[in-house]
Amino acid sequence: MQIQSNFSLRNFNTFGLESLASFFAEVRSVGELTEILLDPVWHETPKFILGGGSNVLFTQNVNALVIHPAIKGIDKIREDEDHVWLKVGAGESWHGFVMHCVESNYGGVENLSLIPGTVGAAPMQNIGAYGVEIRDVVESVETVSIEDGQKKVFSNKECAFGYRESVFKKALKNQFVVTGVTFVLNKKPAINVGYGDVQKTLAEMNVSDPTIADVSQAIITIRRSKLPDPAQIGNAGSFFKNPEIPLEQYNPLKNAFPEMPGYPVGETMVKVPAGWLIEQAGWKGYRQGAIGVHQKQALVLVNYGGGNGNEIRDLAGTIQDSVEAKYGIRLSPEVNFV
Length: 338
Prior knowledge:
single chain; Uridine Diphospho-n-acetylenolpyruvylglucosamine Reductase, domain 1
């Protein structure tokens, strides 16, 4: 295991932003991770865990030891007539794992196709798309304590999953490194095509009785049509969460703006698409030098090349102010600022 100093993180974040790590280590096993965490040379050094970098905005250099988990492996640990349990290394590509499941006809994650990042980062953010969240399929999350190197397994309940949230982003933030995730998947998949875009795309594919492979391909098609490829244009996907507001706040807004979409969350809350709010506030396609708002999806802030994180952060703040001034709704970033 090599520890490098003044290491560029440009290729380790999907915005393609330059940021220097004081120190950088790629760990390929739990043993390597434990070794570096317990090494007295590094024990007092601040640590920063960086997976695929698909949900971070670097606004400065990282004065810490950046640890990049590269623990691989997809192992079937048990199965019964209806389900299969897969233990997956934190360093596996999320989309690569989804494709493994689709090819094996293991249902449950096909709606999460083409989401960038690693398996280890997925439960921290409780990633979700098209009616599915990772909490629907996680049985447990294996971790190592940054403080003392001890292993700890969190059950699904202990992960305290919420909308783009988990215990690892709140109460236990920066305390554990995810090393692996165990998923429970369906050998007799139930197809989830509740979203209109998915149904429309399947119809365009002339598919009337879709398999999980069909659903996956439809979602890949949708995502590629709406979202820029980070390899071409720097971005972190959806920059803001879709806000959930009380029904008593939504109803007057709906009267004032009849076109405003809203989706019930329980009996008292409504989820409003952040992309719609940003687009209606006039930001879709906005560009200022090297940064801007994507021309096809207002929810995506982009770095066209040469931009910096502070510019993107300032643009995000201006968008928040603009949407709040028009609708009284304060958007919350989904991306983590560093």
